[in-house]
Write a structure and sequence with these properties.
alpha+beta; Trna Endonuclease, Chain: A, domain 1
């Protein structure tokens, strides 16, 4: 449900959904990305977190999850070479009951 809300919110902001729930690999080399969206020359790999408060949602993204998303992004790009010239970033969507979604573009960089 949270991913659906996030995808709709991003579409209202002009993003086009490329993939939802992308899973790559198995075991420790596996990667996963909740949403992959594009607007113009920017491709964003988006992690969606839904919690009772913004603080809890923001803190729910762990370093291990960031690495998993980065692996998923690399695998997705390897299968879609046409996106190689795009600007890439990692975004975070925070969802809290009773509030509008909060989109945090460029929430982290590879290796943070």
């Amino acid at each position: 449900m949270a991913e659906t809300v996030a995808a709709l919110w991003l579409s209202l902001k002009g993003y086009r959904l490329l993939c939802r729930g992308a899973v790559t690999g198995r075991g420790s080399g596996a990667g996963e990305v909740d949403l992959i969206v594009r607007r113009g020359a920017v491709v964003a790999f988006v992690e969606v977190k839904s919690r009772p408060s913004l603080e809890q949602a923001a803190q729910a993204l762990t370093p291990a999850q960031r690495r998993r998303i980065e692996r998923g992004a690399a695998a997705f790009l390897a299968r879609h070479p046409a996106l190689a010239g795009c600007d890439l970033r990692f975004d975070l969507m925070l969802l809290v009951p009773g509030r509008l979604p909060r989109h945090l573009p460029d929430a982290w960089r590879v290796g943070d």
